[in-house]
Amino acid sequence: MKYFLILTSIFLISCEKKEKLFSEISPLQSNIDFSNDLNENDKFNLVEYLYFYNGGGVTTGDINNDGLIDIYISSNQGLNKLYLNKGGFVFEDISKTAGVQSKGEWKTGVSMIDINGDGFLDIYQTRLGGYKNISGKNELYINNGDLTFSERGIEYGLDFEGFSTHAAFFDYDSDGDLDMYLLNHSVHTERSYGNSNLRFNKSEKSGDKLFRNEISEGSLKFVDVSDESGILSSNIGYGLGISISDINRDGCDDIYISNDFRENDYLYINNCDGTFSESLESYINYTSRFSMGNDISDINNDAYPDIMVLDMLPQDEYVLKSSAGEDSYEIYKMKLDFGFNKQFTKNTLQLNNGNSSFSEISQLLGIHATDWSWSTLIEDFDLDGNNDVYVTNGIVKRPNDMDYISFLSNEEISGGLVQNPSLKNIDLLKEMPDGRVANYAFKNLSGFRFSDVSEEWGLDFEGYSNGATYDDFDNDGDNDLIINNINDNAILYNNNTKNENSNHIKFIFNGEGFNVYGVGAKVTIWSDGKSYYKENFLNKGFMSSRSSGIVFGLGDSNLIDSIQVLWPSKKNQTLYDVATNQTIKLNENEATQKNQKSKLNSQTVFSDVSDKNLLEYSHNENLFNDFNRERLIPYMISREGPAIAIADVNGDNINDVFIGSPSFQKSELFIGNENKKFTLSDQKDIHEDLLSEDVDALFFDADADNDLDLYVVSGGNEFSETTNSLKDRLYINDDGFFKKQKDLPQIIQNNSVVINYDYNLDGYEDLFVGGRVISNNYGKTPTSYLLLNQKNGNFKIDKIFPDLGMITDAKWEDINGDGIKDLITCGDWNNINLFYNDGTSLVKDSSFIGNDLYGWWFSIETADLNNDGRMDLIIGNIGNNTKLKPSVNNLIRMYINDFDNNSKSENIITYMLNGKEYPLANKDELTKELNYLKREFFYYKDFAGLEINEIFSEKILSESEILFVNDFNSKVLINRGSEFEQINLPLISQIAPVRDIQVLDFNNDNTEDILLVGNNSNVSTYFGSFESSYGILLKGNGDGTFDYINQKKSGLKLRGDITKILPLDKNKSKFVIGKNNDKISIISLDNEK
What we know:
- The protein is mostly beta strands.
- The protein is built from 19 helices and 75 strands.
- The longest helix has 17 residues, at 2-18.
């Protein structure tokens, strides 16, 4: 029995080990005993050098061409180490005999590359030099072919001295040799501060540089071509990450640079003529704020490379609330005014839309918060065909700790720097908390779903991990990992992937000319109806790189239909019917065809015809900041225009367009012409109401005289309820001139929507008007109204809805098939309401599924989505690309109360995390609104990690009005007759708020399709910016489900905060797009333009 128990225990332990995808190789086995130990002193430390704790890099490659991948690791202060792979995860330290120890401080990034095309890998080491007491130039170790190296940086012109972070080698000019981009960084000086024009001021020591390799011209020299090639070389570029990729798939290699602090990241698009165009803001809406490591690879198998950039947003509630948060909205706006792009503190995953645009979706995927992160590696570690994500983390000391920052500047804090200016740097370091954090691994489940498998895969080491890369050290077909840690042993992980669903194929490259290893080759695979795309670039991991070669995971696919290889020379080759689980050597000399630009059908569904100048109007939002008055609300209410209404108002059978403007701008009526263009109509009464903020509008026949009148809804949230400019307006059509009707009921509040229907069946059009907010009282319920038409164009209030909440949209539709339209409403912190209409009264359906669906709803549309004769609902919500993820069991709440007894209500938003309820606002945000809390929570550490009931009393919380949400998904409600079925729209539809919806049949298959528009950039900086949608086209399947039509095929590339979309014609072949604070856009079905 005793032996049985022992055997059982051994078996169970063995099974437990097998559950881990990665296992750590002991240094006793591997002989890898490297540790990047840091020794601070008072002359050189984090205070003196802000990147003191950034760590070192690691690079891998086969230095002796024995078929085994070797490892070189960079030490900041000590000696570098070169480990020769002897097989079986056993390595030999040959650093000293090889001559590559690189003595002295301060080493950073490393690369292995065959710089001279002799078939042997060389080593390039970047350094900090010429700063404080640190000297040293970047080093180039040329491989002598006998396991020794000679340092020849001067000879090659690569002995740069300055603030180097890393280097990337690639053939940017397609001349057959490898050029070098040198990534440099800055330190804070008085020259670092100012507007974005500083990026055009050259800095020799800290500016990035591009060096052209002249070896193909017969010279061993590298020449600085930064200026002529369009590379920015300033001292505000705090370069921390670099990746190379063919972003736009034009065959020329582009560059992505992560810049720390306020400077934009750079996206250099290769013009294929030896020059680059910095194009980040035309491709990407916003980026990480403290951009660190990055990687580029395809996360959704659409053959377009996506970009991941790391930042330092903590997941831990205590660390989050004790660390510096986002800028206030005022400072954020000031940076925009200084010319910088939108930036937010979180990891970003830029999804490549294939049409020169990116959608940022990190929060949708749940990979946005990994704390102080350095390396991101996007690779298919489990060989299931989907690229996973690995992230290294940790910093020895946290300089962004708010108590430390206060210690430096706050005279009230005893012992602070202000009172003790002679404090030594070492003493300051003691005030910073430790930043030891676990590393992360996320498994790609496909379909834009990722799962945190850090512990499950055995990759949750907690420490200070910086540089990292992957390679196949044991030649078993999967990628292993090597990690460079501060003050700890480097970690070598063996990848244990071995199962029937882990087929793979491995490629090694034999290039022509001086690019011996085919760096920059691109491979596309087609297998079992799927496509896979990878690029042979070497920069992988923070300050790190890997060997040439590509591994594709193929899951359970046994046969590859075809393989296409595009070489840097633009030659290509194709292989057919290739078996899996093998290594293939690709030879460029077998690729004889020059790459031809694709002649595939590029027909899109829509085309943007805004440049045809059909309708010229720009919505110019007035200056008003809701957050100055209500600091704790989630987003502005003052920016919900423009209003748009479209109809034929002059009887010429051509539609005309009314566009309602913000306060202090005239609203306009545009008359349609036969040439499809629009001309302004002089409308005196409409123009005189320029103080009103128009948020919705409606053409309808108010006075039954067979022409269309105009109702305009006022909003804006800036004026009080005593202000005439908040009144809605009715303009009566008098032979083409719209005269203001003076007798409209005096509804003075911020409204949101107006819809018309003869709800009492007397032959005259009545109105529902939805209340949006009460000025300066977000969360309090405004009143909504039914206005009864008095049969002469006059209206009276027929029904008051005092408790509908903050309404954002409404729709009349016959839901129960009795021939009479019913009323549906939705709102902000609200549910979806259905009122059945019997011609005499509206009765709320108490059993309607929407009663229990509380969200930040923005829009409603109706259609028969499954061709059963019943009208279904499409409801637009905020989406799931947010930090907050509400559910029935994890509510987001808003407590509304006068918390500080100043006769004004405040809004305290909370969220659930691990069963606990925390405030959304940090200490600074709360104490600015509730000053008395400063006395209760003097230190940030006293506030950090507190639940809401530890900050406020149970009494005041229980006395508060509480609003909540439990669902952020945009969805359809399918009418089954006696009940409704809810179906969430495809996950990609949840990337941004859906603020308006159009139903159409774009492919003429007699099944309704959906066009969604939205975005909202006027939100609290806590949320960043909700602007990842460029318009989403969903093809209906006829059963209430939909398939996403990708942006490249749909042709949709609509940027900005879109609040309205309306058809310009009866056939729905053209649509007018209303954007807040932007020009009007018009799109056309491609076959109709």
